[in-house]
Amino acid sequence: MPTAPKPEILAAFEAAKGFMPVREGLAVYEAAVEAGRLGLPLLEVGTYCGRSTILLADAARACGVTAVTVDHHRGSEEQQPGWEYHDPETVDPELGLMDTLPTFRRTLHRAGLEDHVIALVGRSPLIAKIWNSPLGLVFIDGGHTDEHATADYEGWAPHVAEGGLLLIHDVFPDPEDEFTGQAPYRVYLRALDSGAFTEIPATGSLRVLRRTGTGI
Ligand SMILES: C[S@@+](CC[C@H](N)C(=O)[O-])C[C@H]1O[C@@H](n2cnc3c(N)ncnc32)[C@H](O)[C@@H]1O
Fold this sequence. Notes:
GO molecular function, one term: methyltransferase activity
Keywords: Methyltransferase, Transferase
GO biological process, one term: methylation
Bound molecules: S-adenosylmethionine
CATH architecture: 3-Layer(aba) Sandwich
Distance between the termini: 30 Å
Protein name: Class I SAM-dependent methyltransferase
Pfam family, one: Methyltransf_24
Shape: globular
């Protein structure tokens, strides 16, 4: 099984709009390939324009599983007009609202990965409510408010299979480091406190936890 993406996949990742640094992307890929060995789907919350999805999808392809990615495609709070992470190219000119779905679809098509991804468009808690299947990996990279990060954890972490991985992005223990807040950090602490997850080394603001017990 590969531990790093092929150059063309890495190039597609680097060319894609999004927020994940290369170093963290490589760690996501490595975790996804490891989790893919369980033979279960790999799920991401927070598709945006598909940057991290490319890596999950390629790892899923290598492992013979499917990547699932969840997003309402209307952007997080900090991506709205007037905020630091806003990209005017993501606005639907007809509606005047963010819509990252068309860019995501182009990104995935260009990377040749459409056949390996199921894209679910909607609010994460609504989708989680009707999800009833074990997952090899859950990658939480959705909304960064406490409301959203907590709902993502409570909605999706229960589905991480024994031995599977829970990844949390944008974990900043120092409040000075991140202006979108520390909700992912609080979710990470909660996962560790639950006793259901054991941390394995990661990089940057990415945290990787393995399910070694029951519950959340
Ligand atoms: C930080 S971006 C994801 C970045 C992406 N993983 C990448 O590699 O570029 C967060 C995404 O989560 C989505 N999002 C935020 N809250 C959500 C919710 N409650 N349900 C579904 N999607 C949500 C936003 O629309 C946004 O596209």
